[in-house]
Design a protein that fits this description.
324 residues
């Protein structure tokens, strides 16, 4: 029977017509392609280099070490200051932090008119809640700028630690006769001195606030939990004094160890383990895991560690002016 004139055409997939066969999504095609290249690469490396470990040349094995990337080789000195990649990353962090904060402050308006201002106000509200929940109104007004700055400063330091920069003075390549350092990822936090100085500053601040609020003897007494009596008092008092000093270690080690472990994992999964065991196929097989760890560290850990350091600073400052 012929179709009725003027009737709308039957849509594909309607009753009585076979549904269209959809192809794979672009994302799935990309994932299959990446998996195919990865598996094919494993086969190629296995054929070309075999699956038997071999020793690296004596020259390479004597020079290569996983800890070399964390060495601070002095580039030059200006008086007592020795410039190395650690100092460079700190200067970059300071410059970027000041530049970003200055850029944002000049573009703030009474009414949000850009995505940048919306993000800035979200960050402001987030940091304000973090300090308001742990500090009284007077302490919050006093220390909110510092805690927000610490948050941004550590975040910037962590993030630029995942950007490859020419700072590897141990490996160079020639460009028009000049020896240029190889690209490398490095974070100032992986040098324990950097988080130690930050933690020591926080320790001095909350100790100062505690002594100012309670007095020297009163601050020491405030560390003691209420309701503790009898022979157990000296033991509990010693534990509380020790735990107060352990805050310094916890702030330092948490930031330092997490960034150091992350960079080591990226390096090992990114190729160094294959060099150590003498199997090129291992480097290729672990490369996707190195990329995933890199993304995990750069997207989550960098911000999380900055947040933890900032909120612990607020908690320690708040607890210094309170009694148990």
């Amino acid at each position: 029977m012929s179709a009725v004139a003027g009737a709308p055409p039957i849509a594909p997939g309607a009753a009585g017509t076979p549904p269209d066969k959809r192809g794979m999504s672009e994302l799935r095609k990309l994932l299959y392609a990446v998996a195919g290249v990865w598996l094919g690469g494993i086969v190629v490396f296995a054929i070309l280099f075999g699956l038997k470990a071999h020793k690296a040349p004596a020259v390479v094995s004597s020079v290569f070490s996983p800890i070399n990337e964390f060495k601070l080789d002095t580039w030059f000195k200006v008086g007592p200051i020795a410039f190395n990649k650690g100092v460079l990353y700190l200067l970059l962090t300071v410059g970027i932090t000041l530049g970003v904060m200055g850029y944002i402050s000049k573009r703030l308006q009474r009414r949000p008119g850009s995505r940048l201002q919306v993000v800035t106000e979200m960050f402001y509200d987030f940091t304000r809640r973090m300090t308001g929940e742990n500090l009284d109104a007077q302490m919050e007004r006093k220390y909110f700028p510092l805690i927000a700055t610490i948050f941004v400063f550590i975040l910037v330091s962590n993030l630029i630690g995942y950007i490859p920069l020419p700072v590897d003075s141990g490996e160079t390549f020639k460009v028009f006769g000049a020896h240029i350092p190889s690209l490398q990822i490095y974070a100032a936090d992986t040098n324990v001195a950097f988080p130690l100085i930050l933690a020591l500053s926080v320790f001095v601040l909350f100790t100062y606030e505690g002594v100012k609020h309670h007095g020297p003897l009163g601050y020491v007494k405030s560390l003691m939990p209420g309701g503790v009596n009898g022979p157990i008092v000296p033991l509990i008092f010693g534990i509380e004094i020790l735990s107060n000093f352990l805050r310094l270690i916890s702030l330092t080690v948490r930031l330092w160890a997490n960034l150091l472990a992350g960079h080591l994992l990226i390096a090992f999964m990114g190729g160094e383990l294959g060099v150590l065991v003498g199997l090129q196929v291992v480097s290729w097989a672990l490369l996707p895991f190195g990329i995933l760890i890199f993304l995990f560290e750069a997207v989550l850990i960098a911000g999380l560690q900055a947040f933890i350091f900032a909120i612990l600073t607020a908690i320690y400052l708040g607890s210094a002016v309170e009694s148990h």
